Amino acid sequence: MLSQLLLAVVTGACLAQAYTVKPFKVSLSAEVPWLKTQLAKSRLPTKPIPGADNDDWGVSLSTLQTLRKEWLAFDWSAEEKRLNSYRHYTTVINNSTVHFVHEKSSHPDAIPILITHGWPGSFDEYLPVVRPLLESATATLSNGATKKVSFDVVLPSIPGFVFSGAPSSAKGWDMEQTAGYWNTLMVDVLGYKHGYAVAGSDWGGGIAWHTYDLYPTVRAAYLNFFPTRPTTPEQVIADNQTLTPFEQYGVERTANWTATGNGYFVEQGTKPNTIGLALFDNPVGQLAWISEKFLQWTDPTGDMTHRDVLTGVSLYYLTRSIHSSVFQYAYNPAGFAPNVRKANNPAPMGYGNFKWDVGNWPRYVAAQLGNLVFYRQHEKGGHFPGLDNPGDYVQDVRDFLAEHFTFSE
Ligand SMILES: *[C@@H]1O[C@H](CO)[C@@H](O)[C@H](O)[C@H]1NC(C)=O
Ligand SMILES: *[C@@H]1O[C@H](CO)[C@@H](O)[C@H](O)[C@H]1NC(C)=O
Ligand SMILES: *[C@@H]1O[C@H](CO)[C@@H](O)[C@H](O)[C@H]1NC(C)=O
Ligand SMILES: *[C@@H]1O[C@H](CO)[C@@H](O)[C@H](O)[C@H]1NC(C)=O
């Protein structure tokens, strides 16, 4: 009996997968000449459709001409150097390559935080918050007291995006599966066995919420987006709720986006091959399709720059991952369904609500999605808080987690 038990233990140990972590460098310069050739020979109309050279009809011709010109002159090697000033790694989980940035604080009690990007973004969305979060800095707690806090930061690439391999399953790939990868990455690959925090926006908010929902090793979640339909004005009425002016603005902005801004969502959810293949070797096409989202889902007076847009599009084009990235929508047809439920995790949740986001949830709805103990509104910033308002993003993470994060035994 005892020997059988021992054998089981030994077999179990042998089955436990060993993960290899390899240092990784961004090295895409060999792809750049082709990009510039394709871009240089692309033609655009010489004049706009009358009355349509404005953002109401998608990216305007004049904006696209400007961006195209800037992209032709773009110094990719400088960008690559900036990206490589962070430590990147890859590992293999269930035969899929997973890419991530991992920076460790020099402070021993640092809180591990996993931050997930969305579409059409990448890990680059969150590079501006990495170095500030590594430092020991002052957080302000809800009672006004202060505390020092620092973080170890992990920024993974979603499967199918830039340097992470596309999922191999023909059945598709949902947010829960990515959540499984993230928990394996944090606990088994990186050894954060006493728990970690998750954060995310767009699909990354959905993936972060599912990681929080499924894994008790997630000890706190700071979200800017939820895997449920952003709140509609009709829902607010049905719920007999009165919103603050800030919340009212958000619900209206979402309703406008639903009416005029989510055609891409339907296309990517239903015909991902068509759009993915059409854009695959079409840099000016990717520039139009992607820049519209970067520029229109953000705060016009926020910190987002054309350089952020061009780096974002370059990462998709140069890694040839636009096609696999749009399948995220097709694989998650119920990703933003109207149903609302509380996460199966009593750990604290925070919501950073940035005014210019296109998906917005009033506080009362956020409270139905998890143990909401932190809610903060920001006049500045929108759908890409790591790029359009990294300062407030960092302070939210510090203030929320300094007060509410606890390691497990
Ligand atoms: C990984 O690949 C091997 C070899 O092709 C295969 O036997 C195994 O089932 C795969 N594992 C998973 C989890 O897909
Ligand atoms: C790896 O694949 C196995 C077999 O399909 C599955 O049971 C397991 O949940 C997967 N692990 C992760 C982290 O997805
Ligand atoms: C809203 O108020 C109406 C009328 O008082 C009531 O019938 C309905 O149940 C309320 N809805 C909710 C969600 O409380
Ligand atoms: C929504 O669209 C209407 C009509 O274009 C506009 O008047 C209103 O300002 C928009 N609201 C928000 C919050 O963007």
TrEMBL record:
Entry superkingdom: Eukaryota
GO molecular function, one term: epoxide hydrolase activity
The UniProt record lists the keyword Signal: yes
Record's signal peptide: 1-20
Catalytic site positions: D202, Y329, H383
UniProt-listed GO biological process terms: epoxide metabolic process
Domain Epoxide hydrolase N-terminal: 21-125
Record Gene3D superfamilies: alpha/beta hydrolase
Entry keyword Signal: yes
UniProt keyword list: Aromatic hydrocarbons catabolism, Hydrolase, Signal
Classification via SUPFAM superfamilies: alpha/beta-Hydrolases
One Pfam family here: EHN
Similarity remark: Belongs to the peptidase S33 family.
Name assigned to this protein: Alpha/beta-hydrolase
